[in-house]
């Protein structure tokens, strides 16, 4: 599963692990991705989304209908 949020578009960041002696090795900062299922009344069915926690909070604040409408405008397949 790709570490990409369908709502916010959050993707992994890249950087370095720095040891005590300051040697640097590459590392990846993954967003906190969760799979959530929501019932969407306008579609009359459940929709499973891959979301970051920020995306989940956005759905709680704006509502699933508003977020689904934005996703459909962007052309995301649900």
UniProtKB/TrEMBL annotation:
Domain of life: Bacteria
Keywords recorded for this protein, A-Z: Ribonucleoprotein, Ribosomal protein
Keyword set includes Membrane: no
Entry's Gene Ontology cellular component terms: ribosome
InterPro entries per the UniProt record, alphabetical: Ribosomal_bL28, Ribosomal_bL28/bL31-like_sf, Ribosomal_bL28_bact-type, Ribosomal_bL28_sf
Chain coiled-coil ranges: none
Keyword Lyase assigned: no
Family: Belongs to the bacterial ribosomal protein bL28 family.
Name assigned to this protein: Large ribosomal subunit protein bL28
